[in-house]
Design a protein that fits this description.
66% helix; Hypothetical protein af1432; mainly alpha
């Protein structure tokens, strides 16, 4: 039956190519043989072509039974479509698996960074979550929201280069020690810039300590010169700092956190990002968004 179907299709294509010039007919009977060969045995297909060249019966069969051509086209088209769907589903599954693995690796790396400081465990994951929530409130695309989540996970990766004795120092930092802390945005940027396929991941690392009024670091950017992703992460980062426990205090009351963000909107924070963070706080009536 398969041989007969192929014979009909090939004969019809030859027939119309020789005797008709209508574009729509040639388009209708065009068959993608590369795709057909991908779903049937190539040797068997070549044998069919040989049989066709040796037989005149097939040509007559089409003329006598023209409806068989339509049936043949439908059968082969359905079969090719089903196989293409299967291939596409396999590709999607593989893509999803790679994506899930990438996220898990980034989250594991974030946990490793946070583990350097016993008081910041979970910080990067929370910052990533809050950043994505702000982005969603702002109406950014799903891809933008995902990208901001990834940037949030890795925003503090530069702290790998900061000595543990400085990070875990229980007393106030000296000016020299604070200068060392302030190197982590550039260190993080240098590390993430090595990921050639995703250079955007370095955005949050480099500029999340910039301030909207231009008094931040490391580049003293201001206003909208600071990338939007970094402006969002800056708000989320400060929110988590205030709502996390420290060696010298517990997390702050929600009303105090809200007042701080509201007070610093337009100076430390981008006003738009701060506005949406405030909306998230107002929706968190049970105050669950803290360490």
């Amino acid at each position: 039956m398969l041989t007969y179907v192929f014979n009909i299709i090939i004969t019809v294509r030859t027939y119309f190519t020789i005797y008709y010039e209508e574009d729509f007919l040639r388009e209708f009977i065009r068959i993608d043989y590369d795709k057909l060969l991908s779903v049937v045995d190539k040797e068997h297909f070549e044998n069919i072509l040989f049989d066709l060249s040796m037989s005149s019966y097939t040509s007559l069969s089409f003329l006598i039974y023209p409806s068989m051509f339509i049936i043949a086209v439908l059968i082969i088209s359905f079969y090719v479509i089903v196989r293409n769907i299967e291939y596409k589903n396999r590709a999607i599954t593989a893509h999803d698996e790679v994506k899930a693995l990438s996220v898990e690796v980034m989250e594991a790396l974030a946990h490793t960074i946070d583990a350097k400081d016993e008081y910041t465990r979970g910080h990067s994951v929370r910052v990533a979550k809050y950043s994505k929530m702000i982005a969603e409130k702002m109406g950014l695309t799903d891809k933008q929201c995902e990208d901001i989540y990834y940037m949030g996970l890795l925003h503090d990766i530069g702290k790998i280069g900061v000595p543990n004795e400085i990070i875990n120092k229980p007393s106030r930092l000296t000016d020299e020690e604070y200068d060392v802390i302030k190197t982590h945005p550039l260190t993080g940027f240098e590390i993430l810039s090595e990921i050639k396929s995703r250079p955007d991941l370095a955005t949050g690392a480099r500029w999340h300590h910039e301030r909207y009024d231009g008094t931040g670091y490391p580049d003293h950017k201001s206003g909208e010169d600071i990338p939007l992703e970094a402006r969002i992460i800056a708000v989320a980062d400060s929110y988590d700092a205030m709502t996390s426990n420290r060696s010298y205090r517990n997390y702050l009351p929600q009303d105090k956190v809200r007042k701080e963000i509201e007070k610093n909107a337009g100076t430390q924070f981008d006003e738009v990002s701060a506005k949406y963070m405030l909306a998230i706080i107002d929706e968190d009536t049970d105050y669950v968004l803290h360490e």
